Amino acid sequence: MKRFILPLLIVLIFISLPVKANDEVKTLLKVLDKSLQNKASYTKQKQRQIDSLKIVLRQSGNIRKKVGIAQSLCFEYSSFQKDSALAYAIHMNRFAQESNDKELLIEAKLDYSRILSSMGFFKEALAITNLMQQEQLSPRLKAEFFLGQVTIYNHQKAFASNEHDSQENDLIAQIYRDSLLQCKEVPSNVRAFIAAPTLLFHKKYDDAIHILDSVYESYAPYSRNAGIIAYSLASAYQGKNDRENAIKYFAISAISDVLNGARENLSLKILAKLIFESGDIDRAYKYMKNAMEDAILCNARINTIEASDMYLFIDKAFQEKEKHKFIIITILLTALCLVCILLFILFIQLKKQKGKVEQTNESLSHHLYEIQQMNSILADNNKIKEEYVGLYMEQYTSYITKIANFKKRALKIAKSEDINKVTSFLHSSLNTEEDLVEFYNNFDKAILNLFPNFVEDFNALLLPENAIIPGPGKLLTPELRIFALIRLGITDSVKIAHFLQYSLSTIYNYRSKMRIKANGDRNEFEEKVARIGQ
């Protein structure tokens, strides 16, 4: 009896509750969400418990023990799988008949009728209980009889086709509930739970909460019985418009159902409705979908029919929301595509502009390079000019001084009218060969000062075996002087011949021989010489 009283009385109260969750409720909803994610593991755990009872039933040889085990299986299946619960209720009746224990048989029939009632077979359930004579029942069986009648009429109330029938069934259930409270065999904790619906019916919510609170605290958190009491507490708090506590206890009851593998989870169905009313359609859809799936798997006809209408309503709202979301996403995607197209066009334009800028930069870089080259050449030329201006100023000053001295001496000798002295003076004073040697030596120094690596750079343009090495005490050779002049920009052979006091043919020969000895293209030899030192 104790196994059936609390689970079956969960159907006694159906109350609406709007949702306004505080932090504690939000935390509980997250726990419930996590529990639903792991629902499969809790279902497997429940199935293992049932399988272990089946093994004990097969191994048992005592008929009375078999009745107890079948009753336990019936209880375990009552909120898990109604068809199996009905099957074991039938087994329990058969074992009870074999035991020849009349009281045991009546108890089995009462359990059988409650299972039929929970599956929607009200007439069949009442047909069993109406045959029983109350005065012939023991006090314990009389309490179970009253409990069974309360259960059946509450089920019928939920399926009443009109308000009159609903009220009539509710009145009959209340009469049997009052009779149940008169039974001394009902435990105190169960009595408190049974009294709660009567108090709620008379809107004595605080009294109901008072007696339920003490019972709730006596059970372990999220245990099956704690979940059932939490359901009644939620209903009481809803009655007094304490919405936070109402949603809190409905969530606790739903968590208890999931953790204990119960598929007959009325709390989850009501919670889905309340959350839907609060505007959280996604969560409401998830909860109602789970409740609907469990009702189908449990084959709970009452829960399935009740949940189906609400499920269709929530599903429609969910689909409307998804449709609205799809429209918004479509609009956003369209806008995104337009932005992408605009960005692509902008990218193309920027790429073209970048190409133009790169071309301009490349052109500027080329011109800058040319300017730098020109500046380098100008700087080189300026350096050459500075060197040569200094060289020739010094050279000319020296020659002017010599000429002035020569003039003074010549005039002095000429005054003596001694022609022999004049002739001797002219021969001894005018030594042009020494002057040329000095001039070429100064020229060599100026070239090597301007281009310290001139000899090495020049030989690098020749084949290794044709390298020109100046002799001891010499700075440049005649060939090197010719091409030093070319490096200075003097390319005319006539001017070179005059400068070096060579014949024109000698200059041509030197230039031709050097081109033949060049390492590389002969036609580019003198151009390369002109770039030495750059």
From TrEMBL:
Gene3D superfamilies: Tetratricopeptide repeat domain
Domain DUF6377 per the UniProt entry, residue ranges: 257-497
Name this polypeptide is given: DUF6377 domain-containing protein
Transmembrane segments: 326-348
Organism: Bacteroides vicugnae
Superkingdom per UniProt: Bacteria
Keyword terms: Membrane, Transmembrane, Transmembrane helix
Pfam families in UniProt: DUF6377
